[in-house]
Design brief:
Radius of gyration: 13 Å
CATH topology: Alpha-Beta Plaits
CATH architecture: 2-Layer Sandwich
Shape: globular
Distance between the termini: 29 Å
Number of strands: 4
Number of domains: 1
Length: 87
């Protein structure tokens, strides 16, 4: 499951630096989450840090178009960060 930033985003800049996968970018006046890079912080934290730091309640939600199991998120984490373990 990737996450999705809704239109209620106020562009506070809190989420972007917190993302360990660099999945959040500012595009067309709103932050967006790249579903190919979002692991919901699986592999890093107990829960998504972007949701924790967002001042707008329910602004960041599970993306209904990108649902993944915990195992799929772990697999994605391993692929994204494979270069770190190879060093």
């Amino acid at each position: 499951m990737a996450l999705l930033i809704k239109e209620t985003c106020i562009n506070c800049d809190m989420c972007d630096p917190e993302c360990p996968n660099e999945a959040i970018t500012f595009v067309a006046d709103i932050y967006e989450i790249d579903p190919d890079l979002c692991t919901e912080c699986v592999g890093f934290y107990e829960q998504p840090t972007c949701i924790d730091v967002c001042p707008i309640k329910n602004c960041i939600i599970i993306d209904p178009d990108h649902r993944e199991s915990t195992q799929q998120l772990l697999d994605k984490f391993a692929i994204i960060h494979a270069h770190v373990t190879q060093k």
